[in-house]
Specification:
The structure holds two protein chains of two kinds. Chain A is an alpha/beta fold. Chain A has two domains: 154 residues, Rossmann fold (3-Layer(aba) Sandwich); 117 residues, Rossmann fold, CATH 3.40.50. In chain A, 36% of the residues lie in helices and 21% in strands. The longest helix of chain A has 14 residues. Chain A is globular, with a radius of gyration of 19 Å. By secondary structure, chain B is α/β, with parallel strands linked by helices. In chain B, helix 1 packs across helix 3, helix 2 runs parallel beside helix 3 and helix 2 crosses helix 6. The chains are: A alpha/beta, B alpha/beta. The interface between A and B is medium-sized, with 31 and 31 residues.
């Protein structure tokens, strides 16, 4: 996904004089050819994430369309107040593109992990959040974001599904059956494997914000399981609002709230948080039957 | 000193409309003289067209205590003077910290300290990237505001890329731990000057001087915060 991001953003910089890119060293080498061609619009501020976001706000105020990029804990957690004030409060837009997701940086420890990024953005108004499940979904999301001035967060991960669903903006039914299981982004493959012999409907989205409330109302019959690759329960409010006035039960599965003080790989952490197929199966089955 | 250039009576009247009392003389507002000189003699901004792309930009980073800012903007015709009568009120567009979406002429909404300089760097870069080389960018900070670490990210970066923007620090010695060695020492790579923040000719001279390849710091010293 990261390579697709570099390719697509480089192309946007070539095609659209409104596009700008602000970096804080991360991926600086990958964008060096673009920086040489567009030194005024490819800006590496050094390891200064507060400034990275503030500069993006300033660029947006002059009419440019800034893309802002770093690891999720640095682009979201560290610069949260700049996101809130230098973008949101100014009504300025930007496209934040993170790598690292919840625990891609497992071997680097908790300092390089951001399971709470989407929940943090949920405290702010009017953020669109994309969580692509496959690298072939990334380019279209980046290009769509170039066509307006809204605030967009694109969360890239190492974990990918085996196939892309370019039309994953709304809830897309992958498997039709009984109670609804919603898989966000790279959670689709583990959900499909976990529910292979269960009578469930599996729906996919790579755009959890705004959550497709209409689709959720159409597909949910009483029980819903939300499986998300960030903090468990992040979408609880959105699901409750979508199903307001209708009796329902919801199980939220995602990254646990307790820090896992272990290193290893993203696969190890997925297992530790119960987000691999084996870990998902038991709570889904227990909840639905 | 040429303090007489401040239209004292007009500003006093406007400030009285904000504060509702006689206690606050114009001299009690640390930013007032710099703001007046900026809007009276330096900035190229038409109050009737405050969104022109090639206007100069003034960013009040020190969003605290914006009474002097509002008084100057009202005096220059950015909004009706009767807006000053209900500052902070439910129906007023003028808050205790300014909001760019509510007040014509206000470039950024500030209040939480340490945001204006970073955004100002972005504005300067955005103008340059679009070939708008004539507009200038000014950011006003307080000396206590410099305690915020985010400023120092912007200070170092602006120096490294030799970005021609102007930071003005109003020094009324309100930083809790002071700035041993002077404020200018915290701006390596900048062209710096320290002036009397009440002397209009000195302020004008410091702010109209253009430096095309370096950021410019003007420390405007006023009476210590009492």
């Amino acid at each position: 996904m990261r390579e697709t991001f570099v390719e697509t953003t480089t192309a946007l910089l070539d095609e659209d004089p409104r596009t700008a890119l602000v970096l804080a060293d991360i991926s600086g080498d990958a964008f060096e050819p673009a920086r040489r061609r567009h030194p005024d619009r490819v800006l590496n501020v050094g390891i200064r994430e507060q400034l990275m976001t503030g500069v993006a706000g300033g660029l947006a105020l002059t009419g440019l369309r800034p893309y802002v990029h770093s690891y999720a804990p640095f682009v979201v957690d560290r610069a949260y107040e700049q996101i809130k004030l230098d973008l949101g409060h100014q009504d300025a837009g930007a496209v934040l593109v993170s790598i690292g997701a919840s625990y891609d940086g497992a071997a680097s420890g908790y300092t390089h992990q951001s399971p709470g990024d989407v929940e943090l953005l949920d405290t702010l108004e009017r953020w669109t959040v994309h969580v692509p499940g496959h690298h072939d979904e990334v380019a279209a999301l980046l290009r769509d974001a170039a066509r307006h001035d809204d605030r967009v967060y694109i969360r890239l991960a190492l974990q990918e599904n085996s196939r892309a669903y370019p039309d994953g903006g709304r809830l897309r039914v992958i498997k039709r059956g009984g109670p609804l299981v919603v898989a966000v982004g790279p959670m689709l493959d583990p959900v499909l494997e976990a529910t292979r012999d269960l009578d469930v409907t599996v729906a996919y989205t790579n755009t959890p914000r705004p959550l497709d409330a209409e689709g959720l109302r159409a597909l949910a019959e009483g029980e819903v399981v939300m499986v998300e690759p960030y903090l468990s329960g992040t979408s609880a409010r959105q699901v409750a609002e979508a199903l307001r006035g209708r009796p329902h039960r919801v199980l939220h599965l995602g990254v646990g709230r307790d820090e896992v003080r272990r290193y290893g790989s993203w696969q190890d952490h997925a297992r530790a948080h119960g987000l691999d197929a084996v870990g998902l199966r038991a709570p889904i089955e227990e909840f639905l039957w | 000193m040429t303090v007489t250039a401040l239209p004292t009576e007009e500003i006093r009247t406007l400030l009285r409309r904000i504060s509702g009392d006689e206690k606050h003389a114009p001299s009690s507002y640390s930013t007032l003289d710099v703001l007046w000189v900026l809007y009276d003699r330096v900035l190229r901004i038409d109050p009737r067209k405050p969104d022109e792309p090639d206007r100069d930009r003034f960013l009040l980073s020190k969003g605290h205590g914006p009474a002097a800012y509002y008084a100057v903007l009202a005096a220059k015709g950015f909004f009706p003077v009767d807006w000053l009568d209900d500052m902070g009120g439910w129906d007023s567009p003028l808050g205790n910290h300014p909001d760019r979406l509510l007040v014509p002429g206000v470039e950024i909404g500030t209040g939480s300290l340490g945001h204006g300089l970073g955004v100002g760097v972005g504005v300067a870069l955005g103008l340059r990237a679009q070939g708008l080389l004539e507009p200038r960018v000014f950011v006003l900070l307080g000396d206590a505001e410099l305690d915020e670490g985010s400023n120092h990210e912007a200070i170092a970066y602006a120096a490294a890329i030799r970005l021609p923007l102007t930071a003005i620090v109003i020094d009324n010695q309100s930083a809790t731990h002071g700035w041993p060695g002077g404020i200018s020492a915290r701006f390596p790579g900048w062209i710096t000057s320290v002036i009397d923040g009440r002397d209009h000719d000195l302020i004008e001279r410091a702010l109209t001087r253009r430096h095309h390849d370096r950021p410019n710091l003007v420390v405007a010293t006023v009476e210590p915060k009492g």
